[in-house]
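Lecture notes, unit on protein representations.

Consider one protein chain, 248 amino acids long.
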Amino acid sequence: MAGSDRAIALFLDFDGTLVEIAPSPADVKLDRRVPGALDVLRGHLGGALALVSGRPVSFLDSLLEPHRFDAAGLHGAEIRLGGVMHAQAEVHAEMHGALRDLVRFANSHVGIIVEDKTISLALHWRLAPQLKDEALELMRMIAVRMGPAIRLQEGKSVAELVPASASKGLAITQLMQMAPYAGRLPVFIGDDVTDEHGFEAVNRLGGLSIRIGDGDTIAALRIASPTALRTILLDAAERGGLTTSDFS
């Protein structure tokens, strides 16, 4: 594989990648061995390991404690590097009104879940798939009302209102310009439509993009499941190193 002799910078999505997708965002379960393994791999990668997720950085910290990793949260609206928050988008003035509309919708439709991330808002219909069209219509209407500063990010049984200036691709590109990531081969692993921006950025940088599971993608490689990825990461941590050949 081209570039396999270069030290890598590892970027990992969270939901559907490090953990299985759960019926509710609050129900995800992280294998207790993973945080320690990621910490070991971070050491072997010279610190060049970051989480790139739609979750808030604070949520990622709570699942991975006591370890704190570099992270791009809320699809890149938050970026923490070396323990310092380098970027954090402001809360849109109409976010409270949007939250009120989504809560009203959820209260009148069983199975709809609203996830308030302060800077962004997500509407989940995994427990009520028959409401997909109605939920999307509402989210699209709110996104139009909020204007160009907000974009609608659609994923697996979820749609999210996020700052238009933020994306996983932009976050990875920004991190790749700074130590300890600069000069390394970027590797990004994700599972959803929301990760395609990250795959695009990594492909443009000559790195390796990896999709978990099936579905249309521009990623170069696939891994069958979060379980398969965890096996790779745990084995690499035990062995004391990680290269692109581990994913082929």
